[in-house]
Amino acid sequence: MGDIYREVLPQAPYVIGAYGLIWAFMIGFVATVFSRLRRLEKEIAVVEAAVKRREKAEA
């Protein structure tokens, strides 16, 4: 049983590092998506306000 740990344990830092990088990229990706979503919602609100103003002006 000790032989297994001797073989696996030296690779543990690489596995932990790989998972850390994956998590960092995923968190960055999600943050970017939410940032773009907020920006898009603001743009939609501006367009909706412009459409409402135009409808009032035409009425």
How are the elements arranged and paired?
Layout: H1 2-8, H2 12-58
Description:
It is built from 2 helices and no strands. The protein is mainly alpha-helical and 59 residues long. It starts with a helix and ends with a helix.
Summarize the structure.
The chain is mostly helical.
Give the count of structural domains: 1
Annotation, overall tally of beta strands: 0
- Taking pLDDT < 50 over at least 5 consecutive residues as the criterion, the unreliable ranges are none
Distance between the termini: 83 Å
Percent of residues in helices: over 70%
Keywords summarizing the entry:
59 residues; mainly alpha
